[in-house]
Write a structure and sequence with these properties.
alpha+beta, Ubiquitin-like (UB roll), Creatine Kinase, Chain A, domain 2, 2 domains, 10-stranded mixed β-sheet, 6-stranded mixed β-sheet, 13 helices
């Protein structure tokens, strides 16, 4: 047993933890969990805990259903909600086969594998997300907002200040530091900015933060959602990602005196994101509803271009902090918080590394004062899920990044979602056509 295993066992005993929840996600990023008692912890660490993989959509076929969940002791945290009940803690798990091999359908393993490749090239990926979401009265299909507040409002209009405060305290007790929070542009819309950390830890943190936001909302009798576009007339919710590559302690994105302060490595990474942007969008924006957000007129990214101030660009370069080269970063703006972060970080990293390794040319960036919109030759992001899947299916980069198992299941699952959406008759159609046709 390692020190980390000993720490978990000791903390469980000292804190009176009665149940340890083993967490992992399915391929689309839905959190899965089952509980074990402290008596099973040593077995879980040494052997893994068996479960039926065929019951998890996208995992395994029935004749090869047995899977093992092996908990990662570095992710151990006592859960801070429902403290009146028997104490509970959680650990994220890596999923392995009965032979002890990493399971190809485990999204956490997909990210681990891509981070290992980056490490071989001398890089570590750091991520800082801006998580946007809405509070509503309940989960009914007629959303009822809690306020009419706007961006950065701190008035009685923002009735959810207490909900955000309690969410931040909850996240801090889970070991997830929050840099800032505020009311967003739309009514009842909010944002939490998580402090940047390595990509695997951040993917775990995003999954945890989504649950924490919902748990706190439920305790207050309301509903929180990361649905990208729940209100037709207002901005949707994204997950802008602040990205940087480090080589040891040195930020590989920074170069003193360079335009925008961007190194050759950073420029190659941006070029990769732009070159492969359409191919990876089905992963970073995986729902039919995601594309209702990616439209003009709502401060959402639409075009495969980069710059400093253009809100329609998919990549922005924040102003460099004086005397802080370690803070150099780029902001990738297309993903939404309803994606699977393990897969999204994987394809983003792969696209960026492809730009670095293949010396992709970076087009001229947009600057303040430029005419809004896309200049000639600039492509638009996919306008719907089907278009995004077409681009993904033709991508060797995405297939190799995700692996055949995840790639093929993801495409098949999302094609089914699109077909269901295609046959749905919407309220718009009924209100527009039924009275006149």
């Amino acid at each position: 047993m390692s020190r980390e295993h000993d720490y978990v066992l000791r903390t469980v005993e000292e804190r009176g933890v009665r149940f340890v929840r083993l967490w992992f996600t399915d391929i689309v990023g839905m959190l899965k969990s089952f509980a074990i008692t402290p008596a099973e912890l040593e077995t879980a660490f040494e052997e893994g805990m068996r479960f039926d993989g065929s019951a998890i959509d996208g995992f395994s076929r029935r004749h090869e259903s047995e899977m093992l969940a092996r908990p990662d002791p570095r992710t151990f945290q006592v859960l801070p909600w429902r403290e009146g009940e028997a104490g509970a803690a959680r650990m994220f798990c890596d999923i392995v086969t009965p032979e002890g091999e990493p399971f190809a359908g485990d999204p956490r393993w997909v990210l681990r594998r891509n981070l290992e490749r980056a490490h071989e090239l001398g890089y570590s990926l750091y991520v800082g997300p801006e998580l946007e979401y809405f509070y509503f009265r309940d989960a009914s299909p007629e959303p009822v907002v809690l306020d009419r507040g706007g961006y950065f409002d701190l008035t009685p209009l923002d009735v959810a200040q207490e909900y955000r405060r309690q969410t931040i305290l909850t996240l801090e007790r889970l070991g997830i530091p929050v840099e800032s929070s505020h009311h967003e542009v739309s009514p009842s819309q909010h944002e939490l900015d998580l402090r940047h950390t390595d990509a695997l830890t951040m993917a775990d943190n995003v999954v945890t933060a989504r649950l924490a936001v919902k748990e706190v909302a439920m305790e207050h009798g309301i509903y929180a959602t990361f649905m990208p576009k729940p209100l037709e007339a207002y901005d949707g919710s994204g997950m802008h990602l602040h990205l940087s590559l480090f080589s040891g302690d040195e930020n590989s994105f920074f170069e003193e005196g360079a335009d925008f302060g961007l190194s050759k490595t950073a420029r190659g990474f941006i070029a990769g994101l732009l070159h492969h942007g359409r191919e990876i969008t089905a992963v970073t924006n995986q729902w039919v509803n995601s594309y209702k957000r990616l439209v003009t007129g709502f401060d959402a990214p639409v075009y495969e271009q980069w710059g400093r101030h253009d809100q329609s660009a998919v990549v922005l370069v924040p102003a460099a902090k004086r005397n802080k080269p370690g803070a150099a970063r780029i902001e990738y703006r297309s993903p939404d918080g309803a994606c699977n972060p393990y897969l999204a970080f994987s394809v983003i990293l792969a696209a960026g590394l492809a730009g670095i390794e293949n010396n992709y040319d970076l087009p001229e960036g947009r600057r303040g004062g430029d005419t809004p919109g896309a200049p000639a030759g600039v492509h638009r992001l996919p306008s719907n899920l089907a278009e995004a899947l077409d681009a993904m299916e033709s991508s060797d980069l995405v297939r190799s990044t995700l692996g055949d198992h995840v790639f093929e299941w993801f495409v098949r699952n999302k094609r089914d979602e699109w077909e269901r959406y295609q046959s749905h008759v919407s309220r718009y159609e009924l209100e527009t056509y039924l009275p006149v046709l």
